Structures are given as structure tokens and as C-alpha cells.
Amino acid sequence: MIPTIAEAARLIAERRLSPVELAKECLARIAAQNPALHAFILVTEERALADARAAEARQMAGALKGPLDGIPIAHKDIYDTAGIRTTGHSAQLQERVPEQDAVTVAKWREAGVVLLGKLATHEFAFGGPSFDLPWPPARNPWDTERFTAGSSSGTGAAVAAGLILGGTGSDTGGSIRGPAALCGIAGIKPSYGLCSRRGILPLAQTLDHAGPLAWTSEDCALLLAAMAGHDPLDPGSADRPPPRFDLAAEWRGRRIGVIRHMHERDHPVSPATLKGIEETAEILRSLGAELVEVTLPSLAEFNAAGWVTLSAEAWAVHEEWMRTRPMRYGEFLRARLALGGLLSAGDYIQAQRRRRDLIARSFAATEGVDLLLTAAAPAEAPRIREVSKWASLEKPNFTIPFNLLGWPALSVCTGFGEGGLPVAAQIVGKPWQDGLVLAAGHAVERANGHRARRPPA
Q1: pTM for the whole thing?
Q2: Which one of the listed residues 152, 153, 175, 392 is annotated catalytic?
Q3: pLDDT (tens digit, 9 = 90+) per residue, 112-144?
Q4: Which residue in 18, 90, 130, 151 is the catalytic one?
Q5: Which of 144, 310, 401, 429 shows a CA-CA span of 20 to 30 A to 171?
Q6: pLDDT confidence of 348, banded at 50, 70, 90?
Q7: Tens digit of pLDDT for each residue in 65-83?
């Protein structure tokens, strides 16, 4: 039985679970399953065992650092790891070895985590699923012919398969919540400014968020608490204390806004996805919350402003290499970046004007509402070979609105649909209400019972 982080932390604290044995079990699972899943692009076995032995020494001395001490994790390969290759899953940086940890990597290291390695991503968190890169794309452990979503693809696959207990992701247009949804796990895009992005390869800096993925919302809360905090060297970092992550919320008097138009009209979802959203709403209502219907700007409006912003900012990051060595990118990323190069300064400025309008309208529409509920993904995972280069532009997605807004948003598993594949709902809060969002996810998971079902080994 694969423990959650919360379960493993209790067992380690009680000296009933050895961090070394837990690390060895995860390494064995990686050896057995990664050849089919391609979740890891680098396994750091020697480092993992050294970390685990150090954690076990603290365990036996009664000096554990906290709930993450001895917990096996891995990092998306856009997070810098000192002395360990960090490539962005790209030939552009195939041999790059950073000298310093990303801020969030250092925070987890100081909390005592056991580093098992680096995880597959879409190339520079934007180009995938690609089959012309130095490493293959990650596969969905529920069905290896299926897509994981992206770009935190390796993290989603590795957590779902039990290769790690938690890992890092980044989210610019949905790259934490998408893999969480299709892989049947939990993943939160925090409030903008809550977690430092310093030492993480950028994509679009006004939309980029760093956050965790894990099997449960409770585990995400433990991971996020260790990631959060002001970084004066990240211009997007908020200089304020992180929120409390207390999962024992009182639901009487809370108002949950169901954004029906998004998942019923703007982009109609699959029957299993719709059923999961309705059951999630009913769970929260049964706990004492009041359900109300909320109308935000349309998904099409959010996606128009979001994708212009993302594409233009991504081009600004990659322009030099696109002009000097474009063929070192994979085909998918090269085409997507080129689209950004065709946008004008006027296009970008108009997108920012529209963004400000969308923010103002969204705050007005949600006055007096505590949380929002809609889909995280439209349906069960598609076949990976059928995902098109322009999939993100063909239909509006459910995640980029909350990157534009900067609001915390969580994907939580709500059941299983066609082919036994997971489906999910998205729970969204106001800025700095990350703890309430995670408390809602925790309450839903405890009530719906879907955390007892794992992918076939």
C-alpha cells in the first residue's frame, strides 16, 4: 500500500516507517514502471539514499524537521537543482547543470525531503506531447496510450503511479491542474505571488505559478506550506505572510459559486466530468455550504486574453534562440513560439487591457462568494498520439482564467469515466484563500472515497 505524505509523516514520526526503506520502495517502483511511463528523465538514486539516511538519523535522534522529513519527492525538470542536470526537457539545455537550487527546491531540501530525481515536462513547459525531444513524453499510468496533460506531465504520472509521494509543478495556463485532472490526483496552482519562481525556467512571467502535486489535497497543503513565502528577488513575489493551511474549515455560512456556463455551455464536458462536478457541489452543500450560480466572463474571453499574453511573453523569453538555433527545439514548441513572434506590441497591450477588465468583472461577479466550482478538464484523457499541436487553441480551456486572475485553483479527482479514466473538478478561491481551497478539496476527497483507487501497477 502506497502511503500518502500525511500517513508516511505520522509513521515516520512514530518510528514505524524507515525513510530508507520508503526510498528504496519508491526506487524499486521507478525501476519497474518508469520504462513504460517515462515519468523520470533522471533518477538520483545515490542522492536519494543519502537524503533518506540523513532523515532516518534525525528520526532515531528524535530531531525530525517536520512532516516532510524523509518524504520521497521529485522535481519537474524546469526547477534548478544544484549539481543535478536541469534541462527543461529540451536539447537546448541537454547538458545544463545549475550551481544553485531554485528557491522552492531549497525550501523543500531544508524541510528534509528525499530527492529521487527530475521529472519529464513538456519542452520548456509549453511544447508537448512531443516525440522529437531527447526524452520521450510521460505516459498516463491509468492507460499508457493516454495523455497526461501538461506541462507537469512527469509529476502527474509519477504521483499517480506511486513512484513519488509528491512533486513540483508549474502552472502558466493549467500545467498543474491539467495533469492532476487526467492522472487522477490533486494539484494546486497557488495564489499569484505566494511561491517564488526564482530558479525555475520561465515561460510567461505574469502568468507563471509554482506549486505542488500529490495524491491528496491534504498532501498538497503540506507541500505548499513548505514552498510558500516572500522572495524579494522574485519581482512577482508578494511581500505578505503566507495564509494558514488549516483543513478543518467550517462550511456553514460559506457560499460556493458554481460556474455552470463554463462547463455546460462555453465548453460542454463529458458526462462523467459533469456528474463529478455535481457530486462535488452536493458534498459541499451537505456540509452546510450554500450553492449559488455565478456568471463570470466567458471562457472564450479569458482564453483570448490568456493565450495572447502567454504566447507573447513566451516569445520574449525564447526570441534569441528562435532566431539563432530554432531547430534545437522540438516541432511543437517551435511552432507555438513562432505564433508568439507574429503578435504585435498592440496585440499584447490590448490583451492586458482586456485582462484588467476581466479581473474587475470577476471580482464584481463573485462578491459575497467564498469559492467557485467548475471543471478542471473537459473529459477523460485522450489518446496521446491524437493530441494536436494546437489543442490548447482549438477549444477554450478551464484553467487559464485563473492564471489571468491570479486566484488559487485546485484540481481534485471526482470519479472515473469512460475506460476507467479519472475525471476532476476545479475548486477556486479568492487571492490568498489557498487554505480554504485545500480544505474544500480535503472535505470532498474524504466524502467521495476516490482516493482508495490507484492505477494498475
Answers
A1: 0.98
A2: 175
A3: 999 999 999 999 999 999 999 999 999 999 999
A4: 151
A5: 144
A6: very high
A7: 999 999 999 999 999 999 9
* Cell (9 digits) for 51: 537524503
**76 carries an active-site annotation:** yes
In the chain, the N- to C-terminal Cα span, in Å, equals 11
Q: How far apart are CA 161 and CA 406, in angstroms?
A: 30
**392 has a pLDDT exceeding 90:** no
Write out pLDDT tens, residues 203-213: 999 999 999 99
Cα–Cα distance list, 395 to 182, 288, 352 (Å): 17, 35, 21
Answer yes or no: 175 catalytic. Answer: yes
From 18, 76, 107, 217, the catalytic residue: 76
CATH number of 5-297+359-452: 3.90.1300.10
Sorting pLDDT into bands at 50, 70 and 90, what band is 175? Answer: very high
- Alpha carbons 187 and 122: distance in angstroms, whole number: 17
